[in-house]
């Protein structure tokens, strides 16, 4: 698939402010699953310095430093043209030693994946999420591939999607108890259940094609898990499916915060309120 994507992020403030440093993760990845053909960005006010960077996970990010001038808003507009390639999300062979959970990793692989087993804060998994993970594990007789697809369907079939435009993802135990949440809530739930049985998982932010008749879209989130023999593979519990060529990834992280498209702050000592609006359009070109 080939897509044209426009994304506007607009912060307005109740009074003029001094902007501190910001980091943008708005440039789509270019890798085995997608190719970025064109990218442009427009930022108002114009930063004093822009720095193209590579983040902890190999993704592109842009550092911004602003001049010592006040502004009443910050507007970031991006335009991307990207081609996705993953038409067969299960076109791989799992290594024979990894088909059954728990996976018997070699020490070198285990050390490389360690952050993805525990998350950024290494918090314990909630009891009800552990119960979910082991229920699915028992149902699929410890089969790795079936665990991933079944867990995706469990969350999709048993939870209701709700809109919550702002805020961090809820703890997975709260989401599973309420059986409702946003896409980012479902991703954290999926990741915690995977980690509970020894599957490395990470958070992905990006875009999803959605309804082609729908003009406006929202930023989306899904999970990637490391499958020996398949590499990092995406699963979208909000839609109940494996990620294919209808998803466009922006950024990944061990935690949702590390994949946030825009991070930054105001200078210290400024007591103001802000309002965030976003506009996203995703147009298929073929």
Task: Note down, in words, how this protein is organized.
Strands 1, 2, 3, 4, 5, 13 and 14 form a seven-stranded antiparallel sheet that branches. A five-stranded antiparallel sheet has the order 11-10-9-8-12. Strands 6-7 form a two-stranded parallel sheet. The longest helix has 15 residues, at 144-158. The protein is globular, with a radius of gyration of 20 Å. The chain has two domains: 2-85 and 260-284, Immunoglobulin-like (Sandwich), CATH 2.60.40; 96-258, C8orf32 fold (Roll). The chain contains five helices and 14 strands. It starts with a strand and ends with a strand. It is α+β, with helices and mostly antiparallel strands and 286 residues long.
Q: What would the average pLDDT be, to the nearest integer?
A: 95
What structural class results from the helix and strand content? alpha+beta
Identify the CATH architecture of the largest domain: Roll
Q: How many domain modules?
A: 2
Low-pLDDT windows of residues = none
Kindly state the percentage of residues in helix.
Answer: 10-25%
Order of helices and strands: EEEEEHHHEHEHEEEEEEE
DSSP, total strands: 14
Largest sheet data: 7 strands, antiparallel
Radius of gyration: 20 Å
Assess the beta-strand content as a share of residues.
Answer: 35-45%
In the CATH scheme, what's the topology name of the largest domain?
Answer: C8orf32 fold
The best one-word shape is globular
* CATH top-level class of the largest domain: Alpha Beta
**Continuous helix count:** 5
């Amino acid at each position: 698939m080939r897509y044209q994507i426009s994304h506007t992020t607009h912060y307005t403030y109740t009074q003029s402010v001094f902007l501190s440093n910001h980091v943008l993760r708005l440039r789509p990845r270019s890798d085995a699953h997608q190719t970025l053909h064109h990218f442009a960005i427009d930022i108002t006010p114009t930063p004093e310095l822009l720095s193209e960077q590579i983040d902890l996970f190999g993704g592109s990010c842009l550092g911004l430093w602003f001049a010592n001038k006040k502004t009443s808003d910050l507007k970031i507009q991006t335009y991307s043209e990207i081609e996705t390639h993953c038409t067969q999300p299960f076109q791989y062979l799992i290594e024979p030693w990894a088909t059954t959970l728990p996976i018997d990793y070699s020490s070198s692989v285990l050390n490389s994946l360690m952050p993805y087993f525990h998350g950024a804060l290494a918090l314990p998994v909630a009891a009800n999420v552990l119960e979910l993970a082991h229920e699915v594990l028992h149902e699929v007789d410890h089969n790795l591939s079936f665990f991933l697809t079944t867990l995706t369907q469990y969350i999709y079939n048993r939870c209701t999607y709700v809109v919550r435009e702002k805020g961090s993802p809820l703890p997975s135990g709260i989401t599973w108890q309420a059986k409702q949440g946003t896409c980012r809530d479902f991703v954290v739930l999926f990741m915690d259940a995977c980690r509970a049985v020894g599957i490395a998982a990470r958070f992905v932010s990006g875009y999803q094609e959605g309804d082609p008749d729908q003009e406006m879209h929202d930023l989306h989130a899904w999970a990637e898990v490391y499958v020996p023999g398949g590499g990092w593979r995406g699963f979208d519990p909000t839609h109940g499916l494996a990620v294919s060529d209808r998803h466009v990834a922006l950024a990944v992280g061990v935690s949702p915060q590390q994949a946030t498209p825009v991070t930054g702050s105001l200078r210290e000592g400024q007591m103001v309120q802000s309002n965030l609006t976003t506009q996203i359009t995703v147009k298929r070109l073929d």
